[in-house]
Amino acid sequence: MASFWVFRIGYRRYFFLNGLDSVPAAIAYPLVAVMIVVGSIISDIVLWKKQVNRGDVLLWALLIFSLIMLNL
Question: Model-level pTM?
Answer without folding.
Answer: 0.71
